[in-house]
């Protein structure tokens, strides 16, 4: 069978026998992949693509990192499964390493198999520990597709599973470009934080278990907050005896130029949830890291949580190898360094393209927001009404140029693997620069 015939057979079988997430099934157009290496991957027909979004903001160490592969193979030869009541060397060593790299108040972890599971269990932690049930989250957040995690999420997908779990209260984000309080960065008095405090009073501080936020908002627009935002929210939590949870599923493990996004502002949450980059996406793995106070609370109390694959040895082996790669190969530092290159290149692109209303970036976590007019800030597509033709065309044009990234609403995302070189980074940005000439034609 020819490569083309094999590709068609794989796609047809996939359409017939399995579901594709977040898609009208008849309209899904999967590409059959063959292999990957470093910042690139190949389809079954031999076409090469620069992975400018780390697949789904998760292949932080790049594709097929040899040290992660070797760790998985070594563990597979010894023991590929252990029930959660047992422990293994890789489980113990990864937990210890996570205690070292997370903020120093976080001392113990519960392993899961992904971000949604981590956030589900974080909900349980805060409710069991505090005896309170309300949680404040943000409207433009995404915390996962399971029922509780989606209830935490504020974006439009939440409405499709409602009624969700009770007790979730949403507040606006620090989306400075489209401030809910009609401020600019220069005139901002952190009205978004003042509003959270107002909501705390409306809801009764004694009923609120936690404030739950992404370290840096991910797929809902990469909103990089002002430097005083996270410390101000931490102060609110301390003032009203409320736990602070940082969802670092996307923004963790070097994505923002630090181990975790909150490290950029020297903030210590009571809980950090993680996944994706934890194993470099080589195998499913997530974790919930909790403070020493929470850990001690459960020392002589039942922990009403459990998963068949909690501490799965294969996943923990991948995670242990991935975290060591980030540390030993300087990938956290490279993210910060390449992030500055990306920011400088985006500033030049903004000067050339009137369709760029704003770009936002921190480390290797960036987005371009496209508008019809910079003064009005009208989005270049009315995505609320289902208008996607222009963004779909930009995506297809980028794929023709061998660059794969994530486009949604009126945003183009950029989050390459942390191993990216300056040459590779500029290769991806040049392709985006090129296709933006198409977007510029929609500017009024």
- The CATH architecture term of the largest domain is 3-Layer(aba) Sandwich
How far is it from the N-terminal to the C-terminal residue, by CA?
A: 50 Å
Average pLDDT confidence is: 96
Order of helices and strands: HEEEHHHEHEHEHEHEEEHHHEEEHEEEH
CATH homology superfamily of the largest domain: Type I PLP-dependent aspartate aminotransferase-like (Major domain)
- Shape summary: globular
Per DSSP, the total helix count is: 13
Number of separate domains: 2
Strands of the widest sheet, in order across it, are 4-10-9-8-7-5-6
User: Could you say what the CATH topology of the largest domain is called?
Assistant: Aspartate Aminotransferase, domain 2
At the first level of CATH, what is the class of the largest domain? Alpha Beta
Radius of gyration over alpha carbons?
A: 22 Å
Instruction: Please state the structural category.
Output: alpha/beta
Helix fraction by DSSP (H/I, runs of at least 4): 25-40%
Unreliable stretches covering 5 or more consecutive residues: none
Instruction: Quote the beta fraction.
Output: 15-25%
């Amino acid at each position: 069978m020819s490569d083309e015939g094999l590709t068609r057979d794989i796609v047809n079988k996939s359409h017939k026998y399995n579901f594709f997430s977040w898609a009208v099934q008849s309209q899904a157009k999967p590409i059959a992949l063959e292999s990957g290496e470093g910042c690139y991957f190949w389809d079954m027909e031999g076409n090469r693509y620069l992975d400018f979004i780390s697949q789904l903001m998760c292949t932080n160490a790049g594709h097929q990192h040899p040290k992660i592969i070797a760790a998985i193979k070594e563990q597979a030869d010894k023991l590929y499964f252990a029930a959660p009541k047992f422990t293994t060397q890789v489980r113990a060593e990864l937990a210890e390493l996570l205690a070292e790299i997370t903020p120093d108040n976080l001392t113990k972890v519960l392993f899961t198999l992904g971000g949604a599971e981590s956030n589900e269990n974080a909900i349980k932690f805060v409710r069991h520990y505090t005896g309170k049930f309300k949680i404040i989250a943000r409207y433009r957040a995404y915390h996962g597709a399971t029922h509780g995690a989606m209830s935490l999420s504020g974006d439009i997908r939440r409405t499709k599973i409602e009624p969700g779990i009770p007790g979730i209260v949403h507040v606006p984000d620090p989306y400075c470009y489209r401030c809910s309080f009609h401020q600019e960065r220069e005139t901002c008095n952190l009205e978004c934080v003042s509003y959270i405090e107002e909501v705390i009073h409306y809801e009764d501080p004694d009923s609120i278990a936690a404030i739950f936020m992404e370290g840096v908002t991910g797929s809902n627009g990469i909103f990089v907050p002002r430097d005083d935002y996270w410390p101000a929210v931490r102060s609110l939590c301390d003032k009203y005896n409320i736990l602070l949870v940082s969802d670092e599923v996307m923004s963790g493990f070097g994505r923002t130029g630090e181990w975790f996004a909150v490290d950029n502002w020297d903030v210590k949450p009571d809980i950090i949830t993680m996944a994706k980059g934890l194993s470099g996406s080589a195998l499913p793995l997530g974790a919930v890291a909790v403070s020493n106070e929470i850990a001690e609370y459960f020392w002589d109390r039942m922990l009403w949580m459990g998963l068949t694959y909690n501490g799965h040895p294969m996943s923990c082996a991948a995670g242990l190898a991935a975290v060591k790669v980030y540390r030993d190969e300087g990938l956290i530092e490279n993210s910060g360094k390449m992030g500055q290159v990306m920011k400088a290149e985006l500033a030049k692109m903004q000067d050339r393209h009137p369709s760029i209303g704003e770009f936002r970036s921190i480390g290797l976590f960036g987005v371009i927001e496209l508008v019809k007019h910079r003064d009005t800030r009208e989005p270049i597509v009315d995505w609320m009404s289902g208008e996607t033709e222009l963004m779909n065309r930009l995506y297809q044009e980028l794929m023709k140029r061998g660059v794969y990234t994530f486009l949604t609403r009126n945003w183009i995302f950029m989050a390459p693997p942390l191993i990216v070189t300056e040459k590779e980074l500029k290769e991806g940005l040049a392709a985006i620069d090129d296709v933006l000439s198409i977007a510029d034609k929609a500017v009024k």
